Amino acid sequence: MKLPFEPNKALALIKRDATDWSSYKMQVVISILTALVGFASWGFNATFRNVAVPDYNTNYVSFLLSGILVGNVILSLTQGLSTRLRPWMIESILMTGVRSETFVLGTVAWSYFISVIFFIPQLIIGVYYFGASLIIDPFSLFIAITVSSIMVFAISMASTGIRLVTKVTDPISWTLATGSQLLSGMTFPVSHLNDYVPGLSNLSWVLPYTWVYHVVRLASLEGASVVNPSYGPSFLVTAIYALALVPIGLLTFRWGLRRAKREGTLGMF
Fold this sequence. Notes:
The chain is mainly α. The chain has 11 helices and 2 strands, in the order ααββααααααααα.
């Protein structure tokens, strides 16, 4: 079966980004310190106001740090493509004959990989220094991260496709980023929204990012199994979201790419 992308060329793009990132020693140090200091600041905030979170049978430290880890690792995929949209960069690479699918995969892979690497020390700090309590179902967590990553990757492609045409911040990124901050439950349970506007939490479950946080927390804070009837529907809804968004993301990205080529604005940002 013919793959939709070219593995060797995708690896070449990953190697390019890894070399570029590691060649600036100060950038490496700053990236590491930014990741650790940012995570630590949330940890201090969580321990200061530590309370029970009955939604996941855990405490606020565990709840908040798991949300931050999701944001740092999985949601980093949303930045992979947009941060590579530099003048003439896309046009120059695609002129070499690289498929658009290969370009997309090779462009986001390194940023995702380095986020996973940073995840390890952040997890250690969260558990051993701030006292986060994790009850992990390894298989369910693997499924949750995989499905969530596919979903976020698809959203990133759609966002980039629109930005190729508009050349500015696209409405998809803005809506999801704002919705994530306000409604998706990164820093507080979505049920808390009902304390201000009854029924407002129902709107949260329309947003795909809410399901990302939810299934990862189920698998890492409650040890939820995907085959458990109480938890299975949540994983199923997340998978449906991912499957629905993949073709939308691909089609939107290809549409934006074709239109930018047709209008001669591919290298203008």
